[in-house]
């Protein structure tokens, strides 16, 4: 059985003799004489076409405080706005959400401190097993990599049981509080989405067994890249689960695909970027869309992002809500699949939504 170090370390290309081995992107960037990226980091399949961005295109903004204000008219208006955002964009920016800015900054700083730990302390969590509750790695999770991607990551299972490294000091407590608060926001949003689909507010919570719902905490480190036009932080993908909440350290890099065009997202300070996941698309029978997005890199600053996908319980079989299916006018668009099985399938690098999408008769 391979040791954690053997799992992570790969041989560097011969074009870079000054880099004896590839451990992490951070170590690669900090190696002596590093000026250009190795050829196996050159992601030419999908070039960085950020110039295609439309500066007049901005994702919708949702004011969370109006959703929880107690005013039924304000709540109804926000639910309509969420419904439109999930249908037309699959993304929205959430402001006035009540999670303290100090906590958001503290968790970003804590992640930065984790990535700055000595290599041997991070390698304790290096594994290819996606079901390890604490996992440190580099690149992407898919089992067959043709390219190396320009990111290092730490992922922990945050719910229904919380896991986290004990170092750096205080990191676990900050991550736990952040996950708790962000999950509370997610639960409120899913109540609103239940209503937008025509259900009672607890419909999704009950149908998806959210009391035992699976929450992942994933922190990504994107060091400066000397040739950002050649590299990719995370390739185009959709997220499993219901909703993902994302924050970053004010260094842009997220791009989403809207109407066939990639464009940069510039979040407001102290906001969450929220995107609908594959399982909300499935549950809504295609009414809501799980949108392709990716992370690009830059040559000046280190970007840190934290994604918190929230999904059903791992044993929940997800299919279109029966109330949204009519065999004649609105047939089921997706086959049922257990959430855990779907995650396994996605991490084999296969386009999962297409695998569970039923043919149109």
Automatic annotation (TrEMBL):
<feature type="compositionally biased region" description="Polar residues">
    <location>
        <begin position="1"/>
        <end position="13"/>
    </location>
</feature>
<keyword id="KW-0408">Iron</keyword>
<dbReference type="InterPro" id="IPR026992">
    <property type="entry name" value="DIOX_N"/>
</dbReference>
<dbReference type="InterPro" id="IPR044861">
    <property type="entry name" value="IPNS-like_FE2OG_OXY"/>
</dbReference>
<keyword id="KW-0560">Oxidoreductase</keyword>
<protein>
    <submittedName>
        <fullName>Protein DMR6-LIKE OXYGENASE 2 like</fullName>
    </submittedName>
</protein>
<feature type="region of interest" description="Disordered">
    <location>
        <begin position="1"/>
        <end position="21"/>
    </location>
</feature>
<dbReference type="InterPro" id="IPR050295">
    <property type="entry name" value="Plant_2OG-oxidoreductases"/>
</dbReference>
<dbReference type="InterPro" id="IPR027443">
    <property type="entry name" value="IPNS-like_sf"/>
</dbReference>
<dbReference type="GO" id="GO:0016705">
    <property type="term" value="F:oxidoreductase activity, acting on paired donors, with incorporation or reduction of molecular oxygen"/>
</dbReference>
<keyword id="KW-0479">Metal-binding</keyword>
<dbReference type="GO" id="GO:0046872">
    <property type="term" value="F:metal ion binding"/>
</dbReference>
<dbReference type="InterPro" id="IPR005123">
    <property type="entry name" value="Oxoglu/Fe-dep_dioxygenase_dom"/>
</dbReference>
<dbReference type="Pfam" id="PF03171">
    <property type="entry name" value="2OG-FeII_Oxy"/>
</dbReference>
<comment type="similarity">
    <text>Belongs to the iron/ascorbate-dependent oxidoreductase family.</text>
</comment>
<feature type="domain" description="Fe2OG dioxygenase">
    <location>
        <begin position="212"/>
        <end position="312"/>
    </location>
</feature>
<dbReference type="Pfam" id="PF14226">
    <property type="entry name" value="DIOX_N"/>
</dbReference>
